[in-house]
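Hi P.,

Sorry for the delay on this. The queue was packed all week, but I finally got your sequence through. Input first:
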Amino acid sequence: MRIMEDALLLRVFLGEDDMAGGLPLYRAILEAAMRAGLAGGTALPAPMGFGGSRGIRTGINVDAGAHQPIVVEIIDRPDRIEAFLPLIEPMIPSGVVTLEALKMRKIVPGSPAPA
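Then the structure:
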């Protein structure tokens, strides 16, 4: 069975060195999402990026000061994401959070393949 529903994609742009409560911030956010029972989340390393500091951040540079960008993506129903956002905002010292409305198609295990 396939179910199509409205969803919201939460993206948090941060650096690999950002911390929260002794954990990497990306991990703290994903663990909070899991505890909140959200549908799913992923932390993606980005090879390069720039932001408010205007400096290029890269994980591929041999510069010892490299601060690799990380993008955390979490998806669920809009009401659940909107309820979750205030829980993580205090963890984020600075950065950008985006919300994107989309359609989510759930594929339930054991469902027949489309004809």
